[in-house]
């Protein structure tokens, strides 16, 4: 089981995951173990997947080969198509059924940052755009999709966020999913970003706990603001209603 959130931002990409791997016998979960679900390829590509760990290993190897073979020098559409074609061929060699694996990949191309969803349903690619810039995958998707909709209405009503706001949202959403899910999605939350590096090239990296600490402080402030809003309206409801004099009563 897993939870993944991807956000295309004005100045980069955020991909966030939980860190739990679940052992299963038949349909029965047996053991949960901490497991890193984000891979960074060539310091410039982020890969995160949902499904069997072995399939994730194979897809990551495909992305690494594509990087070595300069596939990422193509257009975003061609890159996405080639990754789908190579993965479909590889999975077909061992009879992998559709619906077994899905992934998010963040990569640079044509002087821009891109986020591509490879659907769990059929592994067909979908590039995120300024019309639809966020996605979630995995067993906690009913939780994360709903929270993403809330975040869009409240914080992103004027369009795509910047990278700082995207990290804030991804941290809040994953922390919440870990807290309320029914099992199989656990801490620590990992946040990766694709952004412009110091040398003018795109750079992919994992954020440190210290960097996430700043965003968690902002999340706490947002929660306090909501509690203050609630208290304000509770006090209004508790205002004393003037008593009507007896002479005015029917």
Set out the fold topology.
Elements: E1 3-9, E2 12-17, E3 20-25, E4 28-34, E5 38-41, E6 45-51, H1 53-68, H2 76-92, E7 101-109, E8 112-118, E9 125-127, E10 134-138, H3 141-155, H4 163-180, E11 190-196, E12 202-206, H5 209-237
Helix pairs in contact: 1-2, 3-4, 4-5
Can you walk through the features of this model?
The chain is of the alpha+beta class. It folds into 2 domains: 3-207, Glutamine Phosphoribosylpyrophosphate, subunit 1, domain 1, CATH 3.60.20.10; 209-239. Helices cover 38% and strands 29% of the residues. It has a 5-stranded antiparallel sheet with strand order 10-1-2-11-12, with helices on one face. Strands 5-6-7-8-9 form a 5-stranded antiparallel sheet, covered by helices on one side. The model has no long low-confidence stretch (mean pLDDT 91).
Observed structural traits:
5 helices; Glutamine Phosphoribosylpyrophosphate, subunit 1, domain 1; 250 residues; globular; 29% strand; 2 domains; five-stranded antiparallel sheet; alpha+beta
| Category by helix and strand content | alpha+beta
Query: What's the order of the H and E elements?
Result: EEEEEEHHEEEEHHEEH
What is the name of the CATH superfamily of the largest domain?
Aminohydrolase, N-terminal nucleophile (Ntn) domain
Mean pLDDT across all amino acids: 91
The largest pleated sheet is described as: 5 strands, antiparallel
The strand count comes to 12
Q: Termini, distance in Å?
A: 66 Å
Order of strands side by side in the largest beta sheet? 10-1-2-11-12
Helix tally? Answer: 5
Helix fraction bin: 25-40%
- Kindly identify the CATH topology of the largest domain: Glutamine Phosphoribosylpyrophosphate, subunit 1, domain 1
- Percent strand equals 25-35%
CATH architecture of the largest domain: 4-Layer Sandwich
Poorly predicted runs are: none
Shape: globular
CATH class of the largest domain: Alpha Beta
Number of domains: 2
Measured on Cα atoms, how large is the radius of gyration? 22 Å
